[in-house]
């Protein structure tokens, strides 16, 4: 599995992704799931990928190849588009291209070709924008109400994001939040693994502000993980204990074919 | 969906289950997923159920019917068995019976017949025991290393359980922990819904100690939920902010057909 998060703030965008891939539990490797296209002063695009690695790498290869070929007005590339919306459409088109080529195999093995993508960045004077792109090539955009996207193994890391995330956070605070969300996920699912790639994009910088690979022995991450565990246990202890009451239960009704 | 937890402690067992069932988002109802068989002074058995309601109710009905029919040495019932291990086998046999009857429909609609069960309680002088029983009728037992079982929508509520749960907790503390785990789940997944049924079994009581249905407006649950949110935000604020470094990333390797 994979866990990736993109979080759009007023001050920029923070991205984080794990690096574990597996083809069976005895065939595990480290691959970056964070892909960066940067043209300093003009645009920065960051894409996080989850799902079948053959599929997602093909999409990344198509996007990269098209950048290095001469511009073609019929086939916009990540370097020729003028808005992030258009960039998301370019990624969608690349996804659909891979699906067309692999059509027969997808029909035979639908599970093998599942994938999802987070695309964020800034082009020129436009605001930084963040999209989640589905395996069908369609996409949605982050809004102040819903400022982050998670792909892959998203459930374990959701509660803390849901409680704390707010677009007016500082970027360093947002990075801390994403790492805590990773900490919860790493503790619960072995198939999400260190190191973690983290990237901070500051609004209007038009270049990657900070990019770092956080290894297992990273001092900050270890401190964060320990401090969070202690803080949670401490918070838990200080909440009032449950004092039950012998209240009668309503009788159980009977019905069928519902899903509980 | 459903969320149910059973947590075996040195002092007894605490159970909690939600009550939401749905057959589509426009067809939602409240059903207890907690089933209790109690013979005061002799045995208490509690079963939590997740999955297709037609399936789980059939299993419960078979178990209940067999209790009220005359004892048959060939067909032990929850009232005739002398250990919790035997009780788990009786539940497993009931599950297999339903699957035999519905064999053709299960083959046609495998998804419809998914279900899982948590069975716990105490019989006579035996220690309280807790089992998770699979839809195939086989089962595993809780141990001090792994004192709780979750069924249904278990991921959102796992991080807090994983960090805090310990078999030497007081029962009221364990109940608080299960309710916090529910709080995280309820916030993240609409298909898990209030009210929550909670049941506390005290070791050697041989009767249900406390059983309560916690409604949406329950004062303790509201207080717990608010206090926990505040404590988490507070803990979050007090952890050092991330200070990134411009560290170069290792180059991305290329390979195929792995799953990221």
Automatic annotation (TrEMBL), chains A, B:
CDD domains: proteasome_beta_bacterial. This is Putative proteasome-type protease. Gene3D superfamilies: Glutamine Phosphoribosylpyrophosphate, subunit 1, domain 1. Keywords: Hydrolase, Protease, Proteasome. It comes from Faunimonas pinastri. One of its GO terms (cellular component) is proteasome complex. One of its GO terms (molecular function) is peptidase activity. The keyword DNA-binding does not apply. One of its GO terms (biological process) is proteolysis. SUPFAM superfamilies: N-terminal nucleophile aminohydrolases (Ntn hydrolases). InterPro entries: Ntn_hydrolases_N, UCP009120_prtse.
């Amino acid at each position: 599995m994979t866990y990736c998060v993109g979080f759009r703030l007023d001050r920029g965008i923070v991205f984080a992704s794990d690096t574990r891939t597996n083809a069976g539990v005895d065939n595990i490797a480290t691959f970056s799931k964070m892909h960066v296209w940067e043209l300093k002063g003009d645009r920065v695009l960051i894409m996080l990928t989850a799902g079948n690695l053959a599929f997602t790498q093909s999409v990344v290869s198509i996007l990269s190849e098209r950048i290095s070929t001469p511009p073609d007005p019929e086939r916009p590339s990540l370097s020729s588009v003028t808005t992030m919306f258009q960039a998301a459409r370019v990624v969608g088109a690349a996804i659909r291209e891979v699906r067309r080529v692999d059509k027969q195999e997808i029909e035979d093995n639908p599970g093998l070709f599942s994938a999802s993508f987070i695309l964020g960045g800034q082009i020129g004077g436009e605001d930084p924008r963040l999209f989640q792109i589905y395996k069908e090539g369609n996409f949605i955009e982050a809004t102040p109400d819903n400022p982050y996207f998670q792909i892959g193994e998203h459930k374990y890391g959701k509660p803390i994001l849901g409680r704390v995330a707010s677009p007016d956070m500082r970027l360093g605070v947002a990075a801390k939040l994403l790492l805590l969300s990773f900490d919860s996920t790493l503790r619960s699912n072995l198939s999400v693994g260190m190191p973690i790639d983290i990237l901070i994009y500051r609004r209007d910088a038009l270049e990657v502000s900070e990019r770092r690979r956080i290894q297992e022995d990273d001092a900050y991450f270890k401190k964060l993980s320990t401090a969070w565990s202690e803080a949670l246990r401490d918070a838990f202890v200080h909440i009032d204990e449950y004092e039950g009451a012998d209240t009668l239960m309503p009788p159980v009704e009977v019905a069928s074919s519902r899903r509980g």
